[in-house]
Fold this protein.
Amino acid sequence: MRRMDPGLLGLLGLLLGALIIGGVRFGLDHAGPAAEAQNLAEVMGPTADADAFARVTGPRPLEFPADHGAHPDHRTEWWYFTGNLTAANGDAYGFQLTLFRSALAPSMAERDSDWATRQAWMGHFAVTDLAAGEHRAAERYQRGALGLAGASVRPVRVWLDDWTIESTGPEALFPLTLRAEDRGVGIAVDLTLTADKPHVLQGDAGYSRKGADPANASRYYSYTRLAAGGEVAFADRRTSVSGTAWLDREWSTSALDANQQGWDWFALQLEDGRDLMVYRLRRTDGGTDPNSAGILVDPDGGSRVLDSDDFRLTPQRHWQSPRTGSRYPVAWRLQLPDEGLDLQVEARLDDQEMPTTVRYWEGSVAVEGTADGVGYLEMTGY
Amino acid sequence: MIRLLGRIGRADLRRHPLQTGLAMLGVAIAVAVVVAVDLANHSAREAMRVSLESVTGRATHQVVAGPDGVDEALYTRLRTELGVRRAAPVVQGGVTLGDDRGRPLTLLGLDAFAEGPFQRPLGGGDALGDAFNTLLLRDDAVALGRGEARRLGVSTGDTLDLRINGRPQPVTVVAVVDDPDDQSRGLLLADIAAAQSLLGQTGRLDRIDLIVDDARAEALATQLAGAARIVPAAASAQSVLQMSRAFHINLTALSLLAVVVGAFLVFNTLGFLGVRRRPTIGILRAMGVQRREILLQILGDALLIGIVGTLIGLGLGFALAHGLVGLVLQTVNDVYFERAAGDLVLSPWSLAAGLLVGLVGSVGAALAPAREAAATPPRAALSRADLETRARQLARRGGWSGAVVVLLGGAVIALSAGLIPAFIGLFALILGAALLAPAVILAVGGILRPLMRGRPVGGLIVEGAVASLSRTGVAVAALSVAVAAVIGVAVMIASFRASVIDWLEGSLAADFYISAPAGLTDAQADRLAGLAGVDFVSRSQWVDLATADGPVTVWALGLPAGQSPAVDIRRPAADTALEPYANDRAVLVSEPFAARRGLAPGDTLGLPVDGRRVDFDVAGIYRDYASPTGAVLMRRGLYLELYDDTGLAGIGVHAGDNAGRAGLIRRLESALGGVPGARVTDNAAVFEQSLVIFDRTFAITEVLRWLAGLVAFVGVVSALMALQLDRLREFAVLRAIGLGRGGLAGLIGGQSGLLGLIAGLWAIPLGIALAALLVFVINRRAYGWTMGFELQAGPVLEGVALAVIAALLAALYPAWRAARLRLAEGLKGE
């Protein structure tokens, strides 16, 4: 081959140079700083004015349907629905719809405007299309006034904009309908839920202690086995589905100690009819807080509370979020020696991180081992 | 056999690394231009969007109702039943400072939970920080922009004494928000609950802002019928920006142009494959190789070049767009552009267009010459003269078909009414003009030839340019389309800018504009008219009248005797229109209104008066870019006769010749003391700001000029180099018979410059036609507006200069090479 002409080389060199300069200057540093996200544990920690709010300090009997409604004098409260659904063709979906209420002040003077409120509401809604391997989520905020967001009883109705959870009858919570849609994100659920088991009280008759201070605690009860049927939409494709769901109801004023980092929360529904909830509170030093706890619910609804010695959780595999850089353990070994349970719990899709203001991982999991099943896993503070 | 032929082809490519490299480069540049123009357009669109938002907020529509405002329950209904997510309630009212001067301020009540998508300067929760809770929880908490806080002399924690509805009302400043452009001058922000309570307006909203598309807005209007109306947002304030939207469509036309230019470039650089191999093909054909096999060989090589070129081009285009946008950024140094340019992404469309031009274009470009080469009898294939003869025949035929295509394009435009036919016509015009380019060279050659008698070098220059059409025809076509794009865009922007200035001068005829949320009165107008330094005042009222054909906006304008409305009357002559307007029951209508209703001067327009329909003569049609739905301009005297409404929405203050502006604005503000929420707008500032925004928005089109220059350069350089390398032997002969090095370089430069000049000159009519089509046909069909046509010599001459300079630069290397030619080697041929 003849020697390359110097003029041509120069011309090519010039263009190559432009290419490299362009690339370096504009292409390579595209990864900008991620949006400022808050940590759930920071939000949930004790604050100076916590004493001015109502606090959960010990067991008290729950009254229904009143306690299905809001507890406006406690700082934080949530209605937390998760579930695993299957379409007729076998395609599997996971969903989460959570309405959070947060009181901005312990009290407020009487005011003229119907817009006036001290209650702020936040909604998180996510659907995972497991066949497509994609998780989509939406977040909303609203003021708890003027019928824009709120909770009422008889019938129980909890809503934020057009995301609604509504009982069919005046007294009982179930059956209830659960409806949410986000057109921009392209997800929707329209489900009817019925209770296969009665509610169970977490901790000491619903008093769930989370820290060394007895007032760092929440009121906590769950419906661990709900039958779900209806429709789910993902990427605006609507599908009829059925499956199981889970409801956690919890309210508190201060739930975490200062030295607690976050939690790993498991809600598992086993094929043998048992349901298992465990959560591990992680301390900032990496250890497990002794206030970690759980509950095992029998097929007939009888239950046994678990304390931190009754189970062992071992992370098996981690997944790092490309958006936030957080490393989440997405596969776990969960052992309950007394119950003869040795379970492998693994995310059905690694990327189920919530792209919300408060960032966390919440997603559908599969259970294998001495018992099979499905469930939901929530990991915060990573 | 095929494999052997493939090897021959590949060997041919390797033996001519310079030409192969140039061909790849040509394809790469073509693809790069297509991709880069699309990216640059994208960022221009983004910049426009961001500019729009920075002034008007992002609201597209507003829910409004009667004088009492909107029932707040409607907002809950929008959210919980109708599923409208991007909606924000607004309460606003006039207040004054509690001191003696009573400076007016506007109290703006917003809902921070709903503000997110609207991105108003004071609205978002982010800017408020810890004050968010305080604003939400207290009825007396307000936030201010930094500029206004300085003017009021308050900081966070201070108490501000206001008068609201005549009663003293202290409020606490809980946050001072950064507001670099002082956009929130005269504004106090409160939570909507506090604002309702402070203004005594519980249960009511002034309006609900929406971000929805037109279809959704229409559906909502039906659902809310009876309770409220839906109107397009803020047509009044900075309407020049609304007009900028028209530019979107013109940018789309530019992307189309880039594809055409790119395709020509590819044709230009790849046509050589068949041409150069003609001798080889002649031999192969003589040896009995089939036509099909030769065709496949050439197309295979073209595809190879196309693939390599496209890959390089995609990367190059991306870098080019970024680099050029970066260059523009440095000159305008603009924060809006930075945001817009930050997220340049390769859209599937531009990727597809790039691939199409690069791959399909390469094969397509090689196809015709390859077929021709494969089809020629072996003996003729060995002859060059035969090729140029055929090229000349082709040029003539191309010229005819070009003329036909231009005529067809013109017919499509003339006979159709829609936007898509207009685009098709535009495309046909460009294509036809490009096809005409070789014929233009021949024609210019024909004109110049007699002039060159007795001037051997001049003759050589002309003949050289004309005689090598097979090489230069497509290059000139590509160059003239590129330069035409530069000229067309420059003329269009100049026209656009001139129209904006005219219109702004008309609509901002007053020096100051006074408005107040609760409206103004004639008594206040009289007071202002009597101030020192005020020449006269104009009194405007705006009302929406419900008619069977939808709401009609009526602008009642009151002027003192001897003054005519400062509108640009298009039809009929201004005097003819103003005479009945001033004396009879006649109105003027704006262009978009006339277009929508199909009205012409002399027609009648029915408007409701007291429940009856009264006919008005349409005295004339005036130009207006402010409202897309249009307006009806009525003399206020007539309006007062017919309608029981003496209110004023605004007062325009015209300053006397010697009035100092600063002093006058102070006198106006103090004369308005005690009028809640009254604002004095300095129209000169609005004018300045509008033009700054306009120039900022269109600065990005500078990128297009750079791109066109690059196309011109690369297109000409590759064509010329291919040509000159072909003619080394001819040059050697010229040198051998006594032409000096300088003479040879001059010859090459002259030929190149002549081609550049022809392309540049041919681009002038094409560019002007392009601009005229965009201005007169496409804008009008898309928006119903007309614009003036501003033809200045500057941009046109710049375009021609660009073509000539690019061609001369392109000649540098071949000239240098030819000058260093060793005679013996050259004479031997390749």
Observations:
- DSSP finds two helices and 24 strands in chain A.
